[in-house]
Write a structure and sequence with these properties.
Layout lengths: L1 E2 L2 H10 L7 H8 L3 H13 L4 E4 L3 E4 L8 H6 L3 H6 L1 E7 L3 H7 L6 E5 L21 E9 L9 H16 L5 E4 L3 E4 L2 E10 L7 E9 L8 H4 L6 H5 L5 H22 L5 H7 L6 E6 L2 E10 L5 E4 L5 E4 L3 E4 L4
Parallel strand pairs: 4-5
Antiparallel strand pairs: 1-4, 2-3, 5-6, 6-10, 7-8, 8-9, 9-10, 11-12, 11-15, 12-13, 13-14
Helix pairs in contact: 2-3, 7-10
Length: 327
């Protein structure tokens, strides 16, 4: 676990013009020695950041990179959340979800990391989390609803994430694969992992974890997920991570508030617009059981509705879905 380091951030800012900078000049700019600069560069290289070093010219960052600016992000929060939430920003963490768990689900915390060494996906999968490129975000919150009433929440969160991506890249090819995989051109661009604490009398504490692929173009990611993309891969442009993180947080708070006031029903029509599985032949895996059928959308609580070949309808509260491909 490593908290964000001011000098490392400043160094990335200096290098983000893509030009060579020598160690002494950068050291003077940051008020540290040449060897301290070298140590930070080494740390970044160990994280997998592509920095070229040349004996005479110095160091060069091969891809532009923006790191989180805590103040910019905090200042962009809605006024009510600014009062009630604490924001922790890390250079490196095992997992932002796990960090909030170690705080025993202490609520009203927002946690961001530049790198996760053990990023987790649903069903114990790995969430590939290289340094600096993407958003790894977790929020802990308490809900005055019974956990059973919260089934639609993860769908609503995915709508908030999709809406954020749309603000930066208005593509018609954004969709959501139930329950909460956000896809661009059928490839995964964001994932959501919600973990809950034992509820006490109709009240529960949740950790909402979101991974959003922003500037990742890394070939290594292919080993970890077969079908993934990022905003940069689609737009060919570098996205300012502070702007998109701020807008993600604003959308999340807005959507969650509405969900708490109205339930999932309000979002049903918005969901339909982006439903990747609607009308398709799908397989749903729930525990050890696999069912095939036609997806008939979601009900007003966010349950997936599947029509089986014998004409009966089954509803699912949770599970993993995939399209059945015919060749
Ligand atoms: C999935 O699609 O399987 C869910 C992926 C969730 C990834 C995020 S990244 C921030 C938070 N911390 C984690 O370890 N996982 C979630």
């Amino acid at each position: 676990m490593k908290k964000q380091n001011e000098n490392l951030n400043k160094l990335i800012n200096l290098l983000s013009d893509g030009k060579f900078h020598d160690g002494s000049t950068m050291g003077a700019a940051l008020g540290i020695t040449r060897s301290a600069i070298w140590k930070i560069v080494k740390r970044l290289q160990d994280y997998g950041v592509n920095i070229t070093s040349d004996l005479t010219k110095g160091y060069r960052l091969e891809q532009p990179m923006t790191l989180y600016d805590k103040h910019k992000i905090y200042n962009a929060l809605p006024i009510s959340e600014k009062k009630s939430y604490e924001l922790d920003v890390f250079e490196s963490l095992n997992s932002t979800n796990d960090y909030l768990k170690t705080l025993r689900f202490k609520t009203n915390k927002i946690c961001l990391a530049e790198l996760q060494t053990q990023g987790k996906g649903r069903f114990s999968r790995t969430w590939y989390s290289p340094f600096g490129d993407n958003i790894y975000l977790s929020i802990s919150m308490s809900f005055n609803q019974d956990i059973s009433e919260l089934s639609g929440l993860s769908l609503v969160i995915s709508l908030a994430v999709l809406n954020t991506i749309e603000q930066f890249y208005a593509s018609k090819n954004l969709s959501i694969k139930w329950p909460n995989d956000v896809l661009l051109n059928g490839k995964k661009i964001a994932g959501i992992l919600i973990e809950g604490d034992s509820e006490v009398h109709g009240c529960c504490k949740l950790i909402i974890g979101i991974g959003l692929n922003v500037n990742m173009t890394d070939k290594k990611a292919n080993q970890h997920a077969n079908h993934w993309t990022s905003i940069k891969l689609a737009t060919k442009k570098n996205i300012d991570k502070n702007q998109i993180t701020a807008s993600l947080l604003n959308n999340l708070f807005k959507y969650i508030k509405k969900f708490q006031d109205t339930g999932f029903g309000y979002f049903q029509s918005e969901w339909k617009k982006y439903d990747y599985l609607y009308g398709q032949e799908i397989t749903i895996t729930n525990g050890k059981k696999r069912t095939h059928g036609i997806c008939r959308g979601v009900n007003n609580q966010g349950y997936l509705q599947v029509e089986k070949s014998d004409g009966t309808n089954v509803q699912y509260l949770s599970g993993d879905t995939s399209l059945n491909h015919h060749s």
